[in-house]
Amino acid sequence: MKILDTFAGAGGFSLGFEMAGCEITGAIEIDKWASETFKFNHPNTNVICNDITKLTDKDILNLFGNEQPDIILGGPPCQGFSICNKNSGDPKDPKNSLFEEFIRVGRVLKPKIMIMENVPNLVKAKTANKEMVIDIICTKLEKMGFYVYYDILEATNYGIPQIRKRLFVIASKKQLENPFPKPTHTLNSGKNDLLSEKLEKCPSLWDAISDLPEIEAREGSEEQEYTIKTKTKYQKFLRNGNATLYNHKAMCHSKRIVERFASMSCGDSISDVPEHLKPYKRNTTEISGKVYDQNNRRMQPNKPCHTIAASFYANFVHPFKNRNFTAREGARIQSFPDSFVFKGKPTVVSQKLLAREGRTDEKYLCQYNQIGNAVPPLLAKAVAKNILEQI
Predict the structure, then answer these.
(1) Would you say residue 196 lies in a domain?
(2) Tally of CB atoms within 10 A around 375
(3) pLDDT, mean of residues 12-25
(4) Domain count of the chain?
(5) Which of 22, 78, 202, 305 is catalytic?
(6) What average pLDDT does the chain have?
(7) 283: containing domain
(8) 113 and 147 both lie in a single domain
(9) Is 78 assigned a catalytic role?
(10) Across-strand partners of 24?
């Protein structure tokens, strides 16, 4: 089955379909660094770095019509629908209308299947006229001759060591008896649950990253050798005989930040550190009164990680080291194989500051952003395998 990935990002969604045996023939992604990542890891794929709204129907046909895609994937930017956004569901947010572009590409290329991934809160989002956005999406796809299904899937149910819920909308020309994959993993031991006894135990955070080279703040590099043997099935699967490790570079924390992290136990966040180690107000040495509890929480090693978001470099502290996660540790938690290399800078300063200083050559998605924005490949693989078995 040929795959076109729209709003492709670094390519986690389509990578899962590739793992299930599909061929990735095309991708559309507006961001330069994310496109570089996609192209580096899929050198034979037609990767178009462009704004999808600027591509006409004729452009889309010319670019992808020859390699007629069987399946079109898409994760239209969803900030407008996110529960993290104060203007959640704001119909004026242009990002809220990008699902129209996803549907337009389907109208032009007429695939057998279209699959959209988004934040769970999309099922609650309404337009200014109080219409449910999910109903609008489903109706438009149904008018194109698709059977449409949607559900919220939890990553830990498919062996991904991360608490992450995502909405999937599946549109298929053929009616599907079971549109969504059954869970393969559980967080329970299975002792008291007959169903859980048949499922594998979901890997923990430590099951995912404990074989990576032990590095402190300011250590590591974009390329290095492994120094520890694999310890778990999950590690062995993602390492897959790789000889070189990529993107395992720790952030350059100041001495004070390292000291702050050293004061934290597992489960603690920045609000639990001693007063003198709390963040300063911007450009001063005065302690800030504002503390964001979700920032810099030290993760529990023997549980799944919290959701890896686009800004995860500031969200989490390593269970045992006094530093934030590396990009590769985030990629492991997202279920990217070690052979998948992320391009662009590891991190960048705020987009607002870059714009203010005219540093447009850095105003792209850094490695951490690309990883946090991605669909976990193993979750995409589970969705893909389930569908491919039925068509």
Answers:
(1) no
(2) 29
(3) 98
(4) 2
(5) 78
(6) 90
(7) 205-373
(8) yes
(9) yes
(10) 3
